[in-house]
């Protein structure tokens, strides 16, 4: 939705330039005329100005500063629609418009229809130029006002001979009004000159007190306080200290405008669906007749309140029988984190209850006593929040629990014929066992077919290697070997495969 562009002290100027205002012929400017910061005014007379001519004075400098603010405001307003470059022959409704080409031309009638809303605003934004022809005219309908029409021009504007335009032209560079062009509005140039030739420039009647509700940012949820704000202006200038009452929520709220004329309050909506917000000035000490002025309505969409949600996060890393496993879950109310909620994790040998942090995350530890698939859930057992969180259970997360790895493991081994001379054994094999965690100096005894074939001592990496273990013809028929060690007073063992080497010599 387009909002009124603030012009501040520039609102009284029919013509305002940066470097020069030049005129040819009997131009009439109804309003002030100015140039700043270091320009000149020429051609008056024969031109006439009903207001005051300001040349490089404080008033003109202030007007230029306010113009810059207004230009930025128009530039930043979000576009409602992109329309063709040529505006002639069309009818448009309130909104913010640009063109795909980045420029506008006007060579026929353009009708601006406010649809019965005198507060309706029309903004036309160009990246480069605005050029009108002799047949270019702007017509107002449906209570539209010239004071609510703005042309934000990225470079320069050129008004053709005899054209009629309504609204304020805010040009980043220069403005040229050719012979007989009529302006029901303002010619305001930020960067260069305004050139006139037998024109009529009339500042539109400044509006009385206005109250404009600003667009509501973010989602609006049933039962949740929603910030609302409105701007109160008198003749385009902010009104501070005004009492403004917002209506449309469950209970009206009255707040006071700040120095920028902005009133900010909070409404709560109890029903989902469309809701209409208005702001009414209930008291204001200003020259404008503000008391009782009501803003145009703003329609917002109120969404239903979401229930509390609990989501178990994916488990990172291997899950091993008997080893603690870190688990976490996130608790949210209407999409926002819930801190201080009690969450119980189930699925392990013993449930565990933890509390969510400021980010709504609960982190605990479960231990699983059985290998295979296990299901983890998280249940909110207590939560101080507007949502109904207590008793909410997460969707289950399935994890795979692996068997524990023993402290001793045996590596696969193979036997070969002990050539060239099979003495003292016909067959030999290299057997290896690993102690986890690594421990040096532990003696490991190796057995094949129940008979010891030798010992080896673990190194710093916990590995014990028995090289060239002698095997009989009966022992090579075994498919495995066993490693046995004593660790911490307990006997541990592991079995490894034993197969023929290829080649077996």
Descriptive key words:
1 helix; 505 residues; 49% strand; 4% helix; twelve-stranded parallel beta sheet; eight-stranded mixed beta sheet; mainly beta
What does this structure look like?
By secondary structure, this protein is mainly β. The chain contains one helix and 48 strands. The strands form eight sheets. Strands 1, 3, 4, 6, 7, 8, 10, 13, 16, 18, 20 and 22 form a twelve-stranded parallel β-sheet that branches. Strands 41, 42, 43, 44, 45, 46, 47 and 48 form an eight-stranded mixed β-sheet that branches. The protein has a seven-stranded parallel β-sheet with strand order 5-2-21-19-17-14-11, with no helix packed on it. Strand 44 (443-448) and strand 45 (451-457) form a beta hairpin. The longest helix has 19 residues, at 58-76. The radius of gyration is 42 Å and the shape is elongated. The N and C termini lie far apart (89 Å).
Number of helices: 1
Q: From the alpha-carbon coordinates, what is the Rg to the nearest angstrom?
A: 42 Å
Low-pLDDT sequence parts? none
Reported for the largest beta sheet, the result is: 12 strands, parallel
The percentage helix is under 10%
Structure class? mainly beta
Distance between the termini: 89 Å
The geometry reads as elongated
Share in β-strands: over 45%
What's the rounded overall pLDDT mean? 90
Give the number of DSSP strands: 48
Topology:
Blueprint (H helix, E strand, L loop, with lengths): L12 E5 L2 E5 L3 E3 L1 E4 L4 E3 L5 E2 L3 E3 L2 H19 L4 E3 L6 E3 L2 E5 L4 E3 L2 E5 L8 E5 L3 E3 L4 E5 L7 E5 L3 E3 L4 E8 L3 E3 L4 E8 L4 E4 L2 E3 L7 E4 L6 E2 L4 E9 L2 E2 L4 E5 L5 E4 L5 E6 L5 E11 L14 E6 L5 E4 L6 E2 L4 E9 L2 E2 L4 E5 L5 E4 L5 E6 L5 E11 L14 E6 L5 E3 L2 E5 L9 E9 L7 E6 L2 E7 L5 E9 L8 E8 L2 E11 L5
Parallel strand pairs: 1-4, 1-20, 2-5, 2-21, 3-6, 3-22, 4-7, 8-10, 9-12, 10-13, 11-14, 12-15, 13-16, 14-17, 16-18, 17-19, 18-20, 19-21, 20-22, 24-31, 33-40, 42-48
Antiparallel strand pairs: 23-25, 25-26, 25-29, 27-28, 27-30, 30-31, 32-34, 34-35, 34-38, 36-37, 36-39, 39-40, 41-43, 42-43, 43-46, 44-45, 44-47, 47-48
């Amino acid at each position: 939705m387009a909002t009124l562009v603030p012009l501040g002290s520039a609102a009284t100027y029919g013509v305002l330039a940066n470097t020069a205002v030049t005129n040819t012929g009997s131009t009439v400017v109804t309003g002030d005329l100015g140039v700043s910061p270091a320009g000149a005014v020429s051609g008056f007379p024969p031109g006439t100005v009903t207001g005051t001519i300001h040349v490089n004075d404080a008033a003109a400098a202030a007007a230029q500063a306010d113009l810059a603010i207004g230009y930025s405001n128009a530039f930043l307003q979000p576009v409602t629609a992109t329309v063709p470059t040529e505006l002639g022959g069309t009818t448009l409704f309130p909104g913010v418009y640009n063109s795909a080409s980045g420029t506008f031309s006007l060579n026929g009638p353009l009708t601006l229809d406010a649809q019965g809303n005198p507060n309706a605003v029309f903004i036309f934004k160009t990246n480069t130029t605005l050029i009108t022809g002799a047949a270019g005219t702007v017509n107002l309908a449906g209570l539209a006002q010239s004071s609510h029409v703005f042309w934000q021009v990225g470079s320069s504007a050129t008004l053709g001979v005899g054209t009629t335009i309504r609204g304020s032209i805010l040009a980043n560079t220069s403005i040229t009004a050719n012979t007989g062009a009529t302006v029901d509005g303002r010619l305001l140039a930020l960067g260069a000159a305004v050139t006139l030739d037998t024109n009529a420039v009339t500042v539109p009647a400044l509006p009385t007190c206005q109250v404009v509700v600003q667009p509501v940012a973010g989602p609006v949820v049933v039962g949740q306080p929603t910030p609302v704000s409105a701007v109160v202006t008198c003749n385009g200038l902010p009104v501070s200290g005004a009492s403004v009452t917002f209506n449309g929520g469950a209970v009206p709220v009255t707040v006071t405008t700040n120095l920028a004329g902005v009133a900010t309050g909070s409404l709560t909506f109890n029903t989902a669906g469309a809701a209409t917000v208005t702001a009414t000035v209930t008291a204001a000490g200003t020259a404008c007749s503000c008391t009782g002025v009501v803003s145009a309505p703003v329609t917002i969409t109120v969404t239903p309140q979401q229930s509390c949600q609990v989501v178990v996060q994916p488990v990172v890393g291997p899950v091993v029988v008997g080893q603690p496993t870190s688990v976490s879950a996130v608790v949210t109310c209407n999409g926002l984190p819930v801190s201080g909620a009690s969450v119980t994790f189930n699925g392990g040998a013993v449930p565990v209850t933890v509390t969510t942090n400021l980010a709504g995350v609960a982190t605990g530890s479960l231990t699983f006593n059985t290998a295979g698939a296990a299901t983890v859930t998280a249940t909110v057992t207590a939560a101080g929040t507007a949502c109904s969180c207590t008793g909410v259970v997460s969707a289950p997360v399935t994890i795979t629990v692996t068997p524990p790895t023993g402290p001793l493991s045996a590596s696969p081994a193979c036997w070969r014929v002990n050539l060239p001379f099979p003495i003292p054994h016909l067959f030999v094999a290299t057997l290896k066992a690993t102690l986890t965690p690594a421990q040096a100096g532990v003696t490991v005894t190796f057995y094949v077919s129940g008979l010891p074939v030798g010992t080896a001592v673990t190194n710093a990496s916990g590995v014990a290697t028995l090289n060239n273990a002698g095997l009989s013809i009966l022992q090579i028929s075994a498919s495995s070997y066993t490693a046995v060690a004593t660790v911490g007073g307990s006997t541990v063992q592991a079995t490894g495969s034993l197969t023929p080497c290829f080649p077996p010599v």
